[in-house]
Description:
single chain; mainly alpha; 11 helices
Amino acid sequence: MTSLDKPxxxxxxxxxxxARAVTEAALxxxxxxxxxxxxxxxxxxxxxxxxxxxxxxxxxxxxxLAVSLVLVVVRLVMKDTVKHAFSGVFGVAFxxxxxxxxxxxxxxxLPGMLYTCGLGLAYIxxxxxxxxxxxxxLGPVFKENLSWRTRNPGRKKAYAKASYAWGVILLxxxxxxxxxxWWADTTQLGWVLVxxxxxxxxxxxxxxxxxxxxxxxxxxxxxxxxxAEKAENAAAxxxxxxxxxxxxx
Length: 249
């Protein structure tokens, strides 16, 4: 390797490191990071803990809903993004209403299980249709919107792989939980569900990171639009200047 080769290699390595850092930051933002995981797990953990101790459906449900609302209030007070906390509140609220209506504590988990199943199918179906869901989710985060569909085939392929991974992982999780819903009691189902909250999620996020870290860089359509606008303004300014000289002449 010559002395001229090394700086090029260093620049390539730096570019690859930057791409990985951008990917990590985007995934962290899109999926909520550590705090988002805590907000996802805590209500269900509180529900199953209280129900395991005293078998009181109403107390367990109210406690789970209350802690979800507290998490939203904390984010509002800190002026932080609330989308993950709000999604948790809605999920818990559906579970509480459903369990209260049927009187079956296991039904607290059923809306979330159905949502997981539907989401897993959505990842598979959208990928088969040529618009992988993970690309729709992460495209705006990477400032590329839908440019990956027609202008960046390598990135579209990475999104397809990641979407298939999410779909398979979520459906595999459902294949474990639904039999337990029918055969196990509430506490057994609840503890298994809590145990399966984080590991499958981390596996899917890690696979997404692996696929996207190896993919071509995203096309920043916002930067392109800004550059086009500046060029248009510059052209208009030049035209005005020319017209002004003609008038003086």
